[in-house]
Amino acid sequence: MLAVMSEKTIALVTGANKGIGYEIAAGLGALGWSVGVGARNERRRTDAVEKLRASGVDAFGVHLDVTDDVSVTAAAQLIRERAGRLDVLINNAGVAGGWPEEPTTLDLETVRRVVETNVIGVIRVTNAMLPLLRASAHPRIVNQSSHVGSLALQTTPGVDLGGVSGAYAPTKTYLNAVTVQYAKELSGTGILINSACPGYVATDLNAFSGTQTPEQGAAIAIRLASLPDDGPTGQLFDDNGVVPW
Prior knowledge:
alpha/beta; eight-stranded mixed beta sheet; 8 helices; 15% strand; disordered N terminus
């Protein structure tokens, strides 16, 4: 298995059983990569893998709950046994609070839940996968962020980001800040890490109110996952280029 896998780029996409995550997996698979479909729901994960395989993608299921240490450790071990390394990690799994959601009336348990998945979960998965990424010749990490996490856009007059978001939007700002710190620590290692803004995509995260398709939303993450070795790191991108912090 290791000999066969060494010939392919190995990627893991968290939250890949539906929406943007699924389309990222499909897009990476179309490049000829072997893609781990990370998801906590067994049925949805199995269905996604079967659908991807039916379309010609070399997909494999990875039981992964980003909020659970045991699950994440087991996922890293599975990839280690299957391939011996990880070339690309896409931290796509995320949850939203309510929307709009005023900070003066926030339920603190909602804040904890969103931070646990959108920030701590990314740190948990990234740190577990780093030894496998260090074994790659061209390691890449992509953190799924959002335009709503940009403080510059949030404070620009006339920019409409969908109203007040007391929980979800700040977690993306936090994630952007964490991405910068990873980039600083990993400078010189060859590991490129960036944040991606997929745009306003119709998914169950926003009750399918978005104006873009999941396939369109997946494009920037796929591009950042396949950056050349001299590509950027520690930045925030959408389809049009760099997004201000």
